[in-house]
Specification:
alpha+beta, 1 helix, 22% helix, 55 residues, 3-stranded antiparallel sheet, binds zinc ion
Length: 55
């Protein structure tokens, strides 16, 4: 699972496919609401706010 900004979405998709050998689902974080999980404050690859959850 990756939380990334728009710039690193493509990278996260590649990493996901490499690791799990199947296509991920991508969700826009601003369209999701979790009660038990807070998305990280930063993209995993840079300091920007993450926009997408790749799962
Ligand atoms: Zn990023």
């Amino acid at each position: 699972m990756y939380c990334v900004c728009k710039e690193h979405l493509e990278l996260a998709l590649d990493l996901f496919v490499d690791e799990y050998e199947e296509a991920p689902d991508v969700y826009a974080l601003n369209e999701l609401k979790f009660t038990a999980w807070e998305p990280p404050a930063q993209c995993e690859r840079c300091g920007e706010a993450p926009e997408y959850l790749v799962i």
